Amino acid sequence: MSRVNSSQVVSIPDLRPIAKRRLPRVVFDYLDGGAEGEFTLRENCRAFEDITFRPRHAVSMPACSLSVRVLDFDLSLPFILAPVGYSRLMHPEGEIGAARCAGAAGTAYILSTISGHRLEDVKAASKGPVWYQLYLMGGRAAAEGSIARARAAGFSALVVTIDTAVSGMRERDLRNGMKELMSGSVFSKIPFLPQIVTRPGWLVRFLLDGGVPDLPNVVIPGQGPMPMIDVAAALASSTVTWQDMRWIRQAWSGPLIIKGVLTGEDARRALDEGASAIVVSNHGGRQLDCVPASLEVLPEIVAAVNGRIEVLVDGGVRRGTDVVKAICLGARAVLIGRAYAYGLAAGGPEGVARAIAILRGEVERTLKLLGCPSIRALDRSYVNLPAGRREPVNEELRV
Ligand SMILES: Cc1cc2nc3c(=O)[nH]c(=O)nc-3n(C[C@H](O)[C@H](O)[C@H](O)COP(=O)(O)O)c2cc1C
Predict the structure, then answer these.
(1) Is pLDDT at 98 greater than 50 in this prediction?
(2) Mutation test of ligand 1: which of 32, 48, 286 has the most ligand atoms closer than 8 Å to its C-beta?
(3) pLDDT of amino acid 118
(4) Quick check: 330 and 302 in contact, CB under 8 A?
(5) What is the pLDDT of residue 213?
(6) CA of 294 to the centre of ligand 1 (A)
(7) What is the pLDDT of residues 54-63, one digit of tens each?
(8) Residue-wise over 33-58: b if at least 16 C-beta within 10 A, else e?
(9) Is the model more confident about 106 or about 233?
């Protein structure tokens, strides 16, 4: 039996130490870490502990429905796999393996711009919906090129991430030499090599996979695929603005999802710009530190959009109870990032499948113990907010 399917792996937190043992420190910390003091990273998980359940006992619950409808897609699960850049560093199958597992489980996969696999191959691997997450790195022409390719390949939604004006300061990456290892000279890599040679299994797989890949989905006209050199600098020189949504809407006629909304104001702006859905997200605590947990601002945003667009949320989801709590507070579905990426790092696609199966089992059991027949029937009446937490008010409904 493989490590990820052993009897010792019963929850997502059990996958994390396996990932840590298999990856070099630089790659594990890239996956695990957050920005600066990692306050928001911790808060994302802690905020779920503030919410408690109000179960309805002594009701018969022979079967529970976990299905949700997001942007006219019927998904079998209330969670979607979030875009995770550099997934191919965690395992050679990376984005392809994760997309295949999502599709097999009946849910959607969101492919990051920072992917080591071609978007066409990722789409072909999944029998479920695959959405493309857009950064403008490489410039507008490169972005228009990837949007056109995504449309032709059959991607069914475009996710524009708006919280990455510059890359967050991930101190662990700096200390571990992430930049030197990804793009530096041989000489600059030397101080950081010990962490790599102590993970020979990972190193062999990485070298057989061809080492650091280019970015095959960011093709700069006249130059070709963007090399994986200083992605941080590329992001800083290509900040997306609300004005960009105009040409993006022209280039992409399908559903548009804006990811990285943390205030009611930005949520209404996304609505005005023609978004079909938003993702309440602080990028898993990896961008601006000291913003609140996504779960904490979710009620404000749900009130602000007042049912006019769908609201998704991510950040800190590690358990089925977390998924259920977020939906009780008004999310249509949640995105999971590290929860499946730990699985990918721990055991490749098998690890992703295990992570999905664990969460599915937990969500189902939570529904049954709550006395709720389906995800769609969840609402505020199933949870207690912490004492003193104000119910958000939709300002537009105030007279
Ligand atoms: C290693 C890693 C890489 C990520 N790369 C991207 C990315 O390329 N684009 C993006 O929009 N979000 C990216 N995110 C953020 C996730 O999409 C998601 O918002 C976040 O992981 C949710 O928090 P969680 O990991 O606690 O579930 C990344 C997250 C992680 C952990």
Answers:
(1) yes
(2) 286
(3) 98
(4) yes
(5) 83
(6) 13
(7) 999 999 888 8
(8) bbbbebbbbebbbebbebbebeeeee
(9) 106
CB atoms within 10 A of CB 96: 25
User: Half-sphere exposure of 244 toward its Cβ, with a 13 Å CA cutoff?
Assistant: 17
Other beta carbons less than 10 A from residue 369's beta carbon: 15
Mean pLDDT of 41-67: 96
Sign of CA dihedral 333, 335, 256, 328: positive
State the residue for tokens 């008004």: 330
Cβ distance 155 to 233 under 8 Å? no
Take atom 30 of ligand 1 and give the residue whose Cα is closest: 84
Q: What whole-number distance in Å separates Cα of residue 265 and Cα of residue 81?
A: 26
Atom of ligand 1 nearest to the CA of 161: 11
Q: Rounded distance, CA 256 to CA 26, Å? A: 34
Q: Which residue has the higher pLDDT, 362 or 6?
A: 362
pLDDT surpassing 70 at residue 342? yes
Query: Cβ neighbours of residue 103 under 8 Å, at least 6 residues apart?
Result: 109, 125, 126, 127, 128, 130
Measured by CA distance, the residue closest to atom 10 of ligand 1 is 83
Instruction: Give the distance (Å) from ligand 1 centre to CA of residue 283.
Output: 5
**Residue of the CA atom closest to atom 8 of ligand 1:** 85
If you count them, how many residues does the chain have? 399
Which atom of ligand 1 approaches the CA of 163 most closely?
11
